Here is the input.
Amino acid sequence: MVDEEAFDIGRWRLLPRSRILAEGDRRQSLGARATELLLTLIRARGDVVSQQQLMAAAWPGRATVDQANLTVQISALRKAFGESGAAIIVTVPGRGYRFGGALPGQDASSSATPAGAEVHAATGQGPSLVVLPFRNLGGDGEQAFFADGLVEDLTTALSRVRWFTVIARDSAFALRNRDLTPMAVGRELSVRYMVTGAVRRAGGHVRVNVGLIRTQDGKEVWSERFDGADADIFALQDQIVARIVAAVEPNLRRSEIEEVRRRPTDRRDAYEAYLRAIWRMHPMTRENCEAALDWLGQAIALDPTFPLALAAAGWCRMWQVSQAFPDVEKNEAEAIRLAEAALMHGATEPTVLSQVGVVFAYLVHRRTTALELVERAVALHPNSALTRASAGWVQLYEDQAERAIEHFGEAVRLDPIDPGAGEPLSGLAYAYLLLGQPDDAVMWAERSVAHSADRLSARRALVAALGAAGRPADKALSELLARDADFTIAKFMRINGRRVGRRVVSIVVEGFERAGVRRD
Here is the structure.
């Protein structure tokens, strides 16, 4: 008698012919459709499988299948895997599902094979990571709870960031005390990145060393040390987690962008096209914007429901409107169309909510909704420079200087390496003008210009701030006109007069007048 082939999934074993999922001595019966769904996801090797493909596999020959039936089967599969269910059967919003579990039986060139084959990490549509148990260096076993608490809270916080996948805590803690190389961790858990750390707590002081490592080659992408007093240990734990999340996300994104830049540009992959677009958007210039829109168009053509690409494309079109490039009405209509589509398919993604909120607010489309969107984005991901900067702009458009400064300041603090990502520096300049503090406005405008010399909004902010402060503005004005030769107050009003808060417009125009900007 031939033994039944088996697929090892972490600590579980799937026996497809018997429709059994075993965990040690515990054996669960799976239905025929649940088994077929799981096999279909396994064979996709981490790639996204659409709902239509899954329904065709589990209900062959059926012309129509109620989507609720698929939802029931997915729910049953997740329940079978317990707390790890959502990490093993991963929902990709608006796109379908993908397999996120560890497969020691998965071969790189074929579908999943019986246990014993070489292990390879799944590629998937986005990066995946695991937060491994932090080492307790204090020598006091009773203090291990603090290290474990950090890992649990960090895993939960990172899982709220929807553009990458975080492996469940149980799978991570199963590797405790196993001396594995980064490459081995990547193979075991099918992840591209791992977060490692060490905690030392002694004498009322806590030190946490954290690193983000790429499992493909063991390269350290980022590392940092966090210190604090443990007078209120739980408050300190929250602070450290917030700071780690704020650092991990942008560094992981930069690593992903650097990775795709090294690959051939003819790959037909929606996520990779999106990353190439994001790379071209920093700094944002006319040429870079057009290149980014080209890549985003390719991403959307490959996946018309990809919310991140739709939102970024809408934001680019809005930016073209803000720069008074040709076809303003066409770009405005396209920006709103793309933003609405992004919101339809990505209503729980903080990046989508942020970019759509700014588009809606600036283009005076559903302004009340815009404020709700950016507030929801900040609530979902308060440690993101992008969500904070976006909230700052929407508050500024509402003439709310103090709230805008709060968000812009957080954006700069969270990502001082790349503050141009949401242009919070020039935002701070405009907000301080609104507060009647032109000298502070000059300081922030100068920083914005230093960061991105070709950004017209930064140049305009500097001219207006210098004029408002009664300081010489000839040099700043000539540099602005060198990049925008026909800039006048009338042009500024034509672009921004009905879009930005009335008080902001009035104060900026007064600064332009005092700086010597032509009226017409």
Notes: Residues 133 and 148 are 7 Å apart (CA to CA). Residues 7-99 form a domain with the Arc Repressor Mutant, subunit A fold (CATH 1.10.10.10). Confidence is low (pLDDT under 50) at residues 105-124. The first strand starts at residue 7 and ends at 9.
